[in-house]
Design a protein that fits this description.
- The protein is an alpha/beta fold and 501 residues long.
- It folds into 2 domains: 18-240 and 377-499, 3-Layer(aba) Sandwich (Rossmann fold), CATH 3.40.50; 246-374, no CATH class.
- 33% of the residues lie in helices and 17% in strands.
Amino acid sequence: MNLIAFPLLLATALSLSAGETTNAPAAKTTNVLAQIPDASHAPVRVTNTVTVAGERVTYVAETGMLPLLKPDGASRASIFYTAYTVAPKPSNPQRPVTFCFNGGPGSASVWLHLGAFGPRRVQMQTDGSMPPPPFALVDNEFSLLNASDLVFIDPVATGFSRPAKEEKAEQFFGDAADLESVGEFIRLWTTRHDRWLAPKYLCGESYGVFRAAGLADYLRSRHGMYLNGLILISGLLDFGTLSGGPGNDLPYPLILPAYTAAAHFHQQLPADLQSDLTKALAEARTFAQGDFARALQQGSALPAAERKKVVAELVRLTGLKPAVIEDNNLRVDQGVFRKQLLHDQGLILGAYDARLTGRDGDPASPAAGFDPASAAVMGPFPAAMNAYVRSELKFEDDLPYEFLASVHPWNFGTRNSFANASEKLATVMNVNPYLRVLVLGGRCDLVCPLDNLRYSLTHLPLAPAYEKNVTIAEFDAGHMMYINPPDLKKMQAVIGKFVQP
């Protein structure tokens, strides 16, 4: 999650009833705990089991800090991580290892950790909405531990990761600095755990997609580390596909299929499209890439008759009223869409997941005042992590676990242009012909619409022979599609196959 920062709050205590905690307490604990650990302390390890796809998996959970070092060997920062490893089988002495991180920038990895891949997950409602507090953790029967070892990384200033004394956190707040620090962590963890000959994958969500693309190239060029694959979830490569406004009309056609998917979910499309989502999405993409894009390119020179046709087609594909489209000059941003689609019902849609709805109490405002989808997770996930890291992983730290840290201003290293990681991804794919890319996106994600990333992938400066290395999987929900149980089950199958070809 987390390209646009969630207003996450540290939440209420976690309720763990006996029927829900089959994975706790841990069976075995080693290493001495420190009250405020840093990279000089030994990691904490516990051993436990979880059932995944009918198989009982025994794993070691390791929490600790690794240092970022200066050239003289002094520590610049301590990076917090949680790693899950499973003893390899004699026939396969090097299990795959997947390094996972979220986005923001400024987000900890808790979302992928306790939402998707770890052996324990936050219990949400069956549709992914927030349950009533207090909240709970349950065993994750869709964990990836049956297919790959997992390392969850919290970049500097997130989680328990902190700069060393006398070091300024701001030195880590930027694209290049972020790649160097996370890349150094991956190098050191790989070295200390003797995993240089293991299959290695990066998994990033939201801004983590932008990071993963850059990291793949950085690890190759700086450390000679060639990866087996990238798992890119709900993110983007080119900020120009996301930031619409004067002089950049590209985002409006790209988000249109997401509007269509959301309108379909809420039954706001005409009968022929409502009966067939595949048809509706195909029609939205054809219109977006053709007549809609051409109309926007004409600006005020668009003839009135053509404009009328475009408005009618947008009404058909979005469920919005003609006046909304006219008032926004054909360019409806996601805040307006979320407020207006179910305005007659007094409901607003979620940005991260347009399936979820809420009420913002201000019917007269032109755009939604908050995001019901982010509100749905801002309580359960912080509460779960605060309880889990201490009670089950046995890691103690008196500092707050920072779910979303303030890391702005973020230095993208660009001037008069949009930040873009496409060239880095293409470079590493051209150099490493074995690198495979798996893209996962939710149809109802209005923050990082799937078609934004699809557009970037089809415009990579990539040798045609390597285009077959890219696979795209679509899901029903939104940005955090894994909070929707059917999507989580599908994710486990798709990614499990990807890392064990």
